[in-house]
Amino acid sequence: MTKTMTIAVLGATGMVGSRAVREAAARGHRVLAVSRKPTSDDPDVTPVAVDLSDAHALGEALTDPPGPGAPDAVVLTVRTQPVDREFLVGTTRTVLEIAARRGIRVLVVGGAGALRSPEDDELLVADNPRYVPAVLRPVATAGVAQLRACQESAHADWVYLSPPGLLEPGDRTGRYRRGTDTMLTAADGRSWISAEDLAVAALDELESPGPDRHLTVVHREAD
Ligand SMILES: NC(=O)c1ccc[n+]([C@@H]2O[C@H](COP(=O)([O-])OP(=O)(O)OC[C@H]3O[C@@H](n4cnc5c(N)ncnc54)[C@H](OP(=O)(O)O)[C@@H]3O)[C@@H](O)[C@H]2O)c1
């Protein structure tokens, strides 16, 4: 049986974060839903209002939060529009530093840009115009910088989950195919997954950590 955890979802109101909150709560975990204006009607989901650019407030949210107490695990799934690389990397470093001190597992939902191209494993997706047009390159390279921040961290217990090329709200099938650091394609030829199934993969990884620090998932058809 899976141990019940307290999981802090940073970016709880977002496309991925809201699904991660729902998936975690449905599995019986206690959830700290962290964003600037979180709300919740679920007694197992405690809203924690924090602006993540305030490192002190972030520290308090992870070490002395209201409700169920300090988290066993953190899902970092934040995004700004337009992309703010400094904020993304800075927040990631702060989370990893706190997590290292407190023994907290960290799962970062990052970008597909940090993956290797399927046709050329020396070429990152972020640098491949076949997948990333010039207008999206700043977002893609910020995701690469976020992965580098993880790799440079002294904390050992982190995993960076790269979505496939396309990530959208959809159905929760509970199925996905898992890979490591190369972008995957589904049976229909597209690199995609629903945000619901990405949340399933994130929670599976937190509950049963695999050997890989960098992993990706893609939609899987029913057998
Ligand atoms: N194919 C791909 O590679 C792909 C596609 C989509 C997303 N992603 C990645 O998936 C992750 C999640 O993306 P998403 O689409 O779910 O993002 P989203 O819907 O835009 O949500 C972003 C979340 O970040 C929170 N946030 C932003 N700034 C904050 C701040 N200063 N303090 C506190 N919270 C803040 C927002 O909360 P508030 O505004 O409520 O505070 C919100 O909950 C990102 O890493 C994104 O790059 C990857």
TrEMBL record:
<dbReference type="Pfam" id="PF13460">
    <property type="entry name" value="NAD_binding_10"/>
</dbReference>
<dbReference type="InterPro" id="IPR016040">
    <property type="entry name" value="NAD(P)-bd_dom"/>
</dbReference>
<dbReference type="InterPro" id="IPR036291">
    <property type="entry name" value="NAD(P)-bd_dom_sf"/>
</dbReference>
<dbReference type="GO" id="GO:0016646">
    <property type="term" value="F:oxidoreductase activity, acting on the CH-NH group of donors, NAD or NADP as acceptor"/>
</dbReference>
<protein>
    <recommendedName>
        <fullName>NAD(P)-binding domain-containing protein</fullName>
    </recommendedName>
</protein>
<feature type="domain" description="NAD(P)-binding">
    <location>
        <begin position="11"/>
        <end position="209"/>
    </location>
</feature>
<dbReference type="InterPro" id="IPR051606">
    <property type="entry name" value="Polyketide_Oxido-like"/>
</dbReference>
